[in-house]
Input
Amino acid sequence: MAAAVTLRPLRADDQDRLLAWRNSPDVAAYMYSDHAISPEEHARWFAGVDGDARRDYRVIEIDGAPAGLANFYDIEPAQGRAAWAYYLAEPSARGKGAGGFVEFLMIERAFGELCLTKLWCEVLETNEAVWKLHQKFGFQIEARLRAHVIKGGAAQTVIGLGLLKADWDAARPGIVARLRRLGFALD
Output
């Protein structure tokens, strides 16, 4: 049986954990910014998340232990779209297929609970494993943004991907079958 993967809303006691995760080299390497986030900067961000209808952050728990963060941002109900991202911060959480299950859970929330018609994201081109994972879930490359982000003093290309609800509806049965074969419990 695969690990139990759940998403839960942020709690006040997550603040310090999220700061440590975000500043860890394994996570920061794939973010747009390079600077170490100060406790004050993080506290402002954390306070701004609460009550912001355009953002929805969830702590990823694997077998009951916090392991990463998943989120929707730029939620536009009138346009039927949102952006999303996630990371597994705990090294012990990687390599177990949990990232794919998080992807499934977030897509299900986007097109179910949030009633969206499009989910989109941006990924550094150098993070090929992630943008290829998105493609396995039906995302299509919609943009290649050249020299879009500066990381380590060098311009980086960003891949923009999008998933339409209709594409998800077509891809979902095969993805559910694949996740079940990997041992994930699905309703």
